[in-house]
Write a structure and sequence with these properties.
Layout: E1 2-12, E2 15-25, E3 32-34, H1 37-51, H2 57-65, H3 71-78, H4 84-89, H5 96-105, H6 108-117, H7 122-136, H8 139-153, H9 169-183, H10 187-205, E4 214-217, E5 220-223, H11 226-235, E6 239-245, E7 251-257, H12 263-266, H13 269-282, H14 287-294, H15 298-301
Antiparallel strand pairs: 1-2, 2-3, 4-5, 6-7
């Protein structure tokens, strides 16, 4: 059997979206068997979410968790069916009107209004209102964090150019820390390792780890604004730079781990597993060899002449992990 990847389309609510379809194909008979059907459908659903500005499941979950309530209680606040919010967290697509209510609930002041209009008891309303008011006091801190993310990583929409994830500097920091612990890579190598970490995770699970955009340049794929991102990661003590001067006068920068942050607080088990697979693939290779491998990737070849952003659907064509 060999794994075959080909372009296809999937209909979501009577609208068709381009996906990369994977099948196992028998080498002898040509017979094909479906592979990762749910992941293929999720590619189309994520594109639908982007097109119609619907919240992603992890965002729906985080909105609820900031108030410390169950999915059933959140459904009651928003006047959904008792299991509806849980179904949205599990991947069901909300209607546009329900999506608007979910986005509204993200903001504590608006959440208070929704609580007041709900059919909860007076005691429940008082408790949730107090929780939301405490969150309001932290809004200046949120704005500062969001401004930093926007400055370094651009817009926060979870598009295909971000692997259907909102940009997350802590996730990126966790990735850089992981690679620094395992390999102490030079800057050029770290750029490629981050690319493979995010893109290989997308291939495995249908979404990236950090929501970082990657651009194709002459030296291979790199995070967009990588110098600014690396400086931030140094300032926040995820990694530290060690500079090496070579006999020809050139300077090389190697990144070492600071380990101020716990990896378990930054990355989940699936993300750690993906990064370990990347390390296993590249840990014994030189920087020059890693560059050579990245130059064989369709994701780089298609976009290097224009130095454009690489869409994550190209992850299904990765040659390093065939």
């Amino acid at each position: 059997m060999k794994l075959v990847v080909r372009p296809s389309t999937i209909a979501i609510r009577k609208e068709h979206f381009a996906v990369m379809h994977q099948v196992w194909q028998c080498v002898d008979t040509g017979e094909e068997f479906e592979y990762d059907v749910d992941g293929t459908i999720e590619q189309a659903k994520n594109q639908y979410r982007c097109k119609y500005n619907l919240p992603f499941p992890e965002e729906i979950q985080s909105i609820r968790e900031q108030y410390g309530i169950s999915a059933a209680k959140m459904s009651a606040v928003l006047r959904f069916g008792i299991n509806q919010y849980k179904q949205y967290e599990s991947g069901e697509l909300p209607s546009e009107s329900n999506a608007s209510l979910i986005f509204l609930a993200k903001h504590p002041a608006d959440f208070c209004q929704l609580v007041a209009l709900s059919n909860l008891t007076a005691k429940e309303k008082a408790h949730l209102t107090k929780t939301a008011e405490l969150l309001l006091e932290k809004q200046n801190q949120w704005r500062k964090r969001d401004w930093t993310v926007q400055l370094l990583m651009g817009d926060s929409k979870p598009t295909i150019e971000r692997g259907f994830r909102k940009p997350d500097l802590n996730k990126l920091g966790g990735m850089a820390l992981f690679f620094a612990i395992q390999m102490s890579p030079f800057k050029t190598a770290l750029n490629k390792l981050l690319f493979y970490g995010d893109f290989f995770h997308f291939k495995r699970f249908g979404h990236s780890i950090s929501g970082t955009k990657y651009r194709a340049i002459e030296m291979g794929p790199v995070p967009n604004n990588f110098d600014g991102l690396f400086q931030y990661l140094e300032n926040e003590q995820f990694i530290t730079a060690e500079h090496h001067e070579y006999p020809n006068g050139s300077i090389g920068t190697r990144f070492l781990a600071v380990e101020k942050h716990l990896l378990s607080n930054l990355l989940d088990n699936n993300e750690l597993e993906t990064l370990q697979l990347v390390v296993n693939q590249f840990k014994n290779l030189s920087v020059r060899e890693i560059i050579r491998i990245s130059h064989q990737e369709t994701a780089w070849e298609k976009h290097v002449t224009t130095h454009s952003i690489i869409p994550y659907l190209d992850s299904f064509l990765l040659k390093a992990f065939n």
